[in-house]
């Protein structure tokens, strides 16, 4: 499941995904893709892949506690002003 493919930007910004890769990734006509710009380059993902990637990044994070702590600090700063 690894591979590097060379593609060329075509007319109107179109890219052709090689058939072997489309089959392995389960891509078909009309499959929505997400193009992510990162510091290291561009990443193309399906919605399911993007969702799984985001879940892995947020795994173990306690966003509710972080938000509450942030709000408490803001309230303390506001009261002190």
UniProtKB/TrEMBL annotation:
Domain of life here? Answer: Bacteria
Keyword annotations:
DNA-binding
- Which PROSITE patterns would you find in this protein's record? SPOVT_ABRB
Q: What protein does this entry describe?
A: AbrB/MazE/SpoVT family DNA-binding domain-containing protein
From the broadest rank down, the organism's phylogenetic lineage runs: Bacteria, Bacillati, Actinomycetota, Actinomycetes, Micrococcales
What does the record give under GO molecular function?
A: DNA binding
Domain annotation SpoVT-AbrB: ranges: 4-50
InterPro entries xref list: SpoVT-AbrB_dom (IPR007159), SpoVT-AbrB_sf (IPR037914)
